[in-house]
Amino acid sequence: MALTKKGEFWYGTTSGDTQAELRSYSVANGYEAVRYASSKCNCGCRTFALQTDEEAGVAIRICTDCGQKHLMGDSADYIEEAAPEAHECVCENEVFELMSGVSVYEGTHDARWYYIACHCVECNLVGVFADWKCEAGDAAAFLAKV
Ligand SMILES: [Zn+2]
Ligand SMILES: [Zn+2]
Q1: Closest ligand to 68 CA?
Q2: CA 90 to ligand 2 center in whole angstroms
Q3: What DSSP string describes 20-58?
Q4: Distance 83 CA to ligand 2 centre (A)
Q5: What single DSSP character describes residue 76?
Q6: pLDDT (tens digit, 9 = 90+) per residue, 57-104?
Q7: How many angstroms is it from 96 CA to the middle of ligand 2?
Q8: Which ligand places an atom closest to the C-alpha of 49?
Q9: Average pLDDT, the chain
Q10: Residue 105: which residues within 8 A CB-CB, separation 6 or more?
Q11: What is the average pLDDT across 21-36?
């Protein structure tokens, strides 16, 4: 597994590559992600369309197999204020595998910043598509809902 750079974008093939890109983005952001979770639908599918509103702190994933819409993490608490917009890869594909990561407050398990990294199933681009300050409490409980 290895990330490769083409132009300004990074490409990878495994969830480890996506996690590595998320971590590097989070370090640059000043709040290093220390816990990670990949998204999986109740039906077993791992590819999704993604809609987010970073201002509101809302992310929605839509399963490409069964069509179930899932509010990621604590998004349900903020959805009324949100205007989520769909993400598209630079290759125009809108289907992704999703990796979530959170940083925590030092000496605690409490979420501090939330990152969502995508892996494009068409062109293999990996990148953090959305992130925001997150006060969701216990990081493990939060990541169980992504
Ligand atoms: Zn599904
Ligand atoms: Zn792509």
Answers
A1: 1
A2: 6
A3: HHHHHHHHHHTS---EEEE---TTS---EEEEEETTTTE
A4: 24
A5: G
A6: 999 999 999 999 999 999 999 999 999 999 999 999 999 999 999 999
A7: 8
A8: 1
A9: 97
A10: 112
A11: 98
The total of structural domains in the chain comes to 1
Taking alpha carbons only, the member of 95, 44, 39 closest to residue 70 is: 39
- How remote is the CA of residue 50 from the centroid of ligand 2, in Å? 13
Q: Percent of the chain scored above 90 by pLDDT?
A: 99
Give the distance (Å) from ligand 2 centre to CA of residue 14. 15
Q: Which ligand is nearest to the CA of 45?
A: 1
The one-character DSSP state at 9 is E
pLDDT at 1: 59
Amino acid 129 reads F
Q: Residue 57 belongs to what domain range?
A: 4-143
Rounded Cα gap, residues 89 and 95, in angstroms: 8
Nearest listed ligand to the Cα of residue 94 = 2
